[in-house]
Amino acid sequence: MLEEKTVDHKNMKKITFFTIIALLLVSISVTSVSAQNQYEIPSWVKGVAGFWSEGKISDADFGEGLAFLIDNEIIKIPKIQELQDKVSTLQSENANLRSKLNLPQSVECGDNQIEQNGICRDIICGPNQIWQNNQCQDVVVGPKNNLNLQTDKVLYGQGDLIIISGLIQNIENLGSSDVSIIVRAPDNSIVAMAQVHPNANGSFQMSLKADGPQFITAGNYAIFANFSGLKSEIKFKFTGGDGGFVSGGETPITCPSGQTLVNGKCVSITISVTTDKSKYNEGDTIMVTGRVTSILVGVPISLIVTNPNGERVILDQLGVDLYGKFSTKFTAGGPLMRDSGIYTIEVTYGSQTRTSETTFSFAGSSDSGPKETKMAVAGTEFMVSYKITGGNLISITPDVEANSLIIAITASQDGSLVITLPRSLIDAKMGAQDDAFFVLIDGKQVGFEETTTSTDRTLTIQFPAGANKIEIIGTFAVS
Predict the structure, then answer these.
(1) Architecture of 147-254 per CATH?
(2) What is the model's pTM?
(3) Fewest C-beta atoms under 10 Å: which of 246, 390, 429, 479?
């Protein structure tokens, strides 16, 4: 019985081709090729090419064979050989010359060059690569930080609950601070302000009810968020309201005097405040704590400290935690707190009907106060007068899109900035009336003291040691 065998024609062709090459190499050893033409292509190569043209040898096999012939200089290409010879000659001459001049054989190349065979050649890497550790390596791009902001709907009516949420991407690369949120009406007046602490994964959320005197005008409302220099803005549409408070989104409820609508019920809200001590000396830390009996979402505590002459020395806004508690601290003394005597702390929670106060005694300060100086506002012709303690003012830059001024400072210790702002540079208006500025220190909302004239507004802002940026937000800023 005959055994069937399968013939691999492809391998047979390859074996045949290299057998031919081997036999021809033997013949070359005894045959002179000096009579060949200027390209030095042996005549027997044409036979091999014939096998290829007839399909007896594949393209890959034929290419490998030609490479073998060229590498072993059976087929010589004059120009390539001539250039190789010249390079070898130049390298040899270079080495001899360096030896005669007692120079090192290595070549010192530029920053963007590498030595190859004694010659400096330019380093050329890919579009997203750099030269590192003697090779081109991919550039590793760090994670990008973004602040995303959204609402649960795009259209709201009176009494609807507006849920504002967001995500800070790669929050672990940023400092720990709160997200500052401002809601503005169509006329750019501030409807609500809040400080929201983000979760560990960068997510945050707050809610706001579309009712009350802040929500009357129909139109597009804007939400601005700021976290450690990251900013985001979105808009929603409000159909309009009558200024009343709404329960269940249907019928407005009017509460008796002294009560407030909370979660659909009229309740009495009380507020209390105290300090950790009754007497303080210059440099002491004054701890202020307090509590409210019911929480109003998005409503801060307004705190005012007045000196024995009735002049305001500190103005601040404080957040309320889930348990209704609030706190702050400041240093006794400084340019605004020099007089000795009894100081009063007054706190207000959304209405003058919800107030409380406490007092403390201060021994007085030896601080004579800072000198007034001026600084130019970048990109404008304005010069701004200011006084600063505890640090230095570096620059003042307008942010037209945010209607704000960015003030760069260095703060070696707790201090204060008294700055006079021309109304033609920046202002905050609600119609024809003055509106409150919104002040952030390194992204966190703070209180301030203010005096006004028809042409200027002077703000006194307390800042902590290590502060870098103060942002004053209004409804208009010069472009």
Answers:
(1) Sandwich (2.60)
(2) 0.36
(3) 479
